[in-house]
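Here is one chain, start to finish.
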Amino acid sequence: MNLNNVSRDDWILGGGALLLVIDLLFLPWFSVNGFTLTATSQFDGWTAVLSVLFSLALIADLGVERLSPGTALPNIGGSRTQTRFVLACAAAGFVALKFLLHIHFSWFGFGFWAAVVLTIALVYFALQARNAAAMTPGTV
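Its structure:
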């Protein structure tokens, strides 16, 4: 295991995905009459659970590629960075679906607003990594 293979951009992408997981599981997303609920509670908590799973898959994919480069993993579109971009978009899609199923701005707590920022950042950095890999010859 060689941490020298992990770039600053990898740390940012993996850290953003981990922060989104922590947000979805532990921070208050809704606050109603003094009660707070996390994103995984309520009738539509499955959307947050799927977003957590996609975020964890992104972290695992990044970790396996950087810490065990000889391990072959399936990919989407012929590229590991494309795979991570798709995983980030899937996580973002389920966060957006959670929002659409529960629109009531006066109920949203700190966790929701943090998740909005983290989700946008996650997709942005995954897109940047995909575009950088596409412009570098010989990388996938």
